[in-house]
Design goal:
The complex is a heterodimer of chains A (493) and B (101).
Chain A: H1 3-13, E1 18-22, E2 25-28, H2 29-45, E3 51-54, H3 60-71, E4 75-77, H4 84-92, E5 98-101, E6 114-116, E7 142-147, E8 157-161, H5 162-172, E9 183-186, H6 193-205, E10 208-211, H7 217-227, E11 231-234, H8 236-246, E12 258-261, H9 268-277, E13 282-289, E14 294-299, H10 301-308, H11 312-317, E15 323-324, E16 329-333, E17 346-351, E18 358-359, E19 362-363, E20 371-379, E21 385-390, E22 395-397, E23 400-402, H12 404-411, E24 417-427, E25 431-440, H13 448-458, E26 467-470, H14 484-492
Parallel strand pairs in A: 1-10, 3-4, 3-5, 5-6, 9-10, 9-11, 11-12, 12-13, 25-26
Antiparallel strand pairs in A: 1-2, 7-8, 8-18, 13-14, 14-15, 16-17, 17-20, 18-19, 20-21, 22-23, 24-25
Helix pairs in contact in A: 1-2, 1-6, 2-3, 5-6, 7-8, 8-9
Chain B: E1 8-10, E2 17-22, E3 30-32, E4 35-36, E5 38-39, E6 62-64, E7 71-76, E8 82-84, E9 87-88, E10 90-91
Antiparallel strand pairs in B: 1-2, 1-5, 2-7, 3-4, 3-8, 6-7, 6-10, 8-9
Classes of the chains: A alpha/beta (493), B mainly beta (101).
């Protein structure tokens, strides 16, 4: 299996229904397939060894992705809004690739190998000689190089082979299973694994994809209403902005059947407000990593509805990522590699056909096929997986392992707190001490003493932050991941 | 004919086209209503199957042979019935999941 075959199948099943829309451009799967083949031939004629995509999420993204697949070369999406000093090394690391650009020139790319992304839609962007596409693309070939968000340092390129991404799609999506009126609104960018997964699964399901660049809460709601969107995926920062924008009034989006969220930890107060404002919409929490070809566990609409109705067990599980997908295995291990029993927190390991675990520097998968996620978590008696956060972020205070998320979850429940980031500061007595950066809700005030008392009331004393500072905002990646190392540098400085 | 992962196969007599998801652990004769499956690029006379019964090969469905581990995905539908060494191979069950994308 390879990515272009997914498109080929979608186009052979297509009844001329629209596959992708952005702005006033709409393409059927047949149009998309023809465009991808045309562009692939041109890329091969140019001698491209890869396709670097430095553009927005619109129809030129699927054209470039499938063109790369038809040409049998890797697709490398980058965040074109990165500063030159961050973008240049990534572009230069992929010398030989054609660079599809939003804004020209792209620092580090030669003019002869740079293409305006808008040109891909042009019929005249085609091979000038007879170029034959390879036909057979090995499932072992690299389909996509995705730079991980690098919240803990320099970005690493995760390698996803055709077999990983197609295993996810054919294992979880019913081919042509979408009804004609269904539409998915995509606001995550092409360089995010969720953007990749969204494209492949919706195309395979036959669901119209509506692309929206530059997220804005009001535009998002308007688009859902105007396009009759039935499915949408957001990262937590987007949902928080939608909830703030709604300001207590119902979302009024009768067509929206499913709203899925993932990509970072969702603050429970935001989720609870969203469940109230989006009555009639089913919520899905999707957990996955770039290295696992996106989603590997789901908390579905029924679990969300039960929690909203007040079921005490379901309310606890609202803090979980649900159950792993069929075909995925999970183990929780201690620091020495021993498998831990149900209920005990430790390091999360995953195995399955969609799991890659490979980087440009090599694979981290062990001989038995297990991928160390470096996330800490635990599994309850009914197989619900709880994720506490990155192992690297765990605070060790006086020998006790403390997940920052546990303290953050308490802090954000305080009415005056909008958001919080908890980090461990070096401490001679305890090894690490707990410090929190807190952003106040608009128009609210509180004191350090009050917040510490609030934490002591809901947590053990050893988990109460010794230091609390107030900040105007917290640093995030463009896709909503909290940049803890920047908060740590701020608080340690 | 070697059945390797990713290769495109087809029935010479009907419209069925397949993609190999997992190769078999040992050589196996893959047939469509009794006719040997060929490479998709091979000659396909397309005479049809005289007595095609059953549901045929359904597009987007995975067919798996438990004995050899062979798994194919139907890329184009056809009326024929798929078999491995004479054993009819069945649709691999896929539980519909709530959309997360």
């Amino acid at each position: 299996m390879n990515l272009s075959l997914l498109l080929e199948m979608a186009s052979s099943a297509s009844d001329e229904r629209i596959a992708v829309v952005s702005g006033d451009v709409a393409l059927s799967a047949i149009d998309l397939d023809a465009a991808a083949r045309r562009v692939a031939a041109r890329f091969l004629e140019m001698g491209a060894t890869g396709v670097v995509y430095c553009g927005t999420n619109d129809v030129s993204f699927p054209i470039a992705l499938f063109a790369a697949s038809y040409a049998g070369i890797p697709f490398i999406p980058l965040n074109y809004r990165l500063g030159a000093e961050q973008l240049q090394p990534l572009v230069e690391a992929n010398a030989g690739a054609v660079v599809v650009a939003e804004v020209m020139p792209v620092i580090g790319a030669g003019a002869a190998m740079t293409v305006d992304r808008r040109d891909l839609l042009n019929e005249s962007f085609a091979a000038t000689s007879d170029v034959e596409l390879p036909g057979f693309v090995d499932p072992e070939d690299v389909a996509v190089l995705l730079y991980t968000s690098g919240t803990s340092g320099t970005p690493k390129a995760a390698i996803l082979r055709h077999r990983h991404l197609t295993a996810y799609v054919i294992g979880t999506v019913e081919f042509a299973g979408a009804e004609p009126e269904q539409a998915a609104l995509v606001t995550v960018p092409p360089y995010h694994i969720a953007g990749m997964a969204n494209l492949l699964s919706n195309l395979y399901a036959g669901r119209r994809i509506v692309y929206l660049d530059a997220f804005d809460a009001e535009v998002w709601i308007d688009t859902v209403r105007r396009e009759g969107v039935t499915q949408a995926m957001v990262v937590p920062t987007m949902l928080a902005r939608v909830v703030t924008h709604l300001d207590g009034s119902p979302a009024d989006v009768p067509t929206l059947r499913t709203l899925s969220y993932g990509g970072a930890r969702m603050p429970l107060p935001v989720l609870e407000q969203a469940l109230e404002l989006f009555a009639g919409t089913g919520f899905v929490n999707a957990y996955g990593l770039t290295e696992t070809s996106s989603t590997i566990a789901l908390l579905g609409p029924d679990d969300h509805a039960a929690a909203f109705a007040g079921d005490p067990v379901a309310k606890v599980r609202l803090g979980s990522v649900g159950k792993v997908l069929p075909g995925i295995e999970v183990e929780v291990r201690d620091e020495h590699g021993a498998v831990l029993p149900v209920g005990e927190p430790g390091l999360v390991f995953l195995r399955g056909e969609q799991v890659s675990g490979e980087y440009d520097a090599g694979s981290v998968v062990d001989e038995a096929g297990w991928f160390p996620t470096r996330d800490r978590g635990w599994i309850d008696t009914d197989d619900y997986l709880f994720i506490e956060g990155r192992a690297d972020d765990t605070i060790i205070r006086g020998g006790e392992n403390i997940a920052p998320a546990e303290i953050e979850d308490v802090l954000v429940r305080h009415p005056a707190v909008d958001s919080a980031c908890v980090v461990g500061l070096p401490n001679e007595e305890w090894g690490q001490s707990i410090a929190a950066a807190v952003v106040l809700s608009a128009g609210r005030t509180t004191t350090v003493d009050e917040l510490q008392a609030y934490c002591r009331e809901h947590l053990r004393g050893s988990k109460t932050p010794e230091t609390i500072v107030f900040r105007a905002e917290l640093p995030h990646t463009p896709t909503g991941k909290l940049l803890r190392r920047e908060v740590l540098a701020d608080l340690a400085g | 004919m070697e059945i390797k992962a990713g290769s495109r196969l087809a029935c010479p007599e009907c419209s069925t086209e397949l993609v190999v998801v997992k190769p078999p652990s040992a050589p196996v004769a893959l047939t469509c209503s009794g006719v040997a499956i060929v490479e998709a690029t091979a000659d396909r006379p397309g005479g049809g199957h005289g007595d095609a019964a059953g549901d045929g090969a359904l597009v987007g469905k995975r067919y798996a042979d438990e004995e050899t581990g062979l798994e194919v995905l139907c890329a184009k539908p056809g009326p024929g019935t798929l078999a491995a060494d004479g054993r009819v191979i069945e649709i691999k069950g896929a539980k519909p999941l709530p959309s997360s994308d």
